[in-house]
Amino acid sequence: MNANASPTEISNIIVREIKGQKELRAVENLQKEVWGIPELDVIPLTQMVAVQAAGGVLLGAFDGEILAGFAYGFVGCEHGQMTHHSHMLAVKPDYRNFDLGRRLKFAQRERVLEQGIKMMTWTFDPLQSLNAYFNFNKLGVFSNRYFVNFYGEDAASFLHRTGTDRLWVTWDLPKNHIDKTDFNEEFGQISPLVKFGIDESPLIGDLEEGLKNEHALIEIPANINDLVKNNSDLAGKWRESTRRAFTKAIDADFTVKNFYRINRGDQNLGVYLLTQKN
Question: What is the C-alpha separation between 13 and 3, in angstroms, rounded?
Answer without folding.
Answer: 14
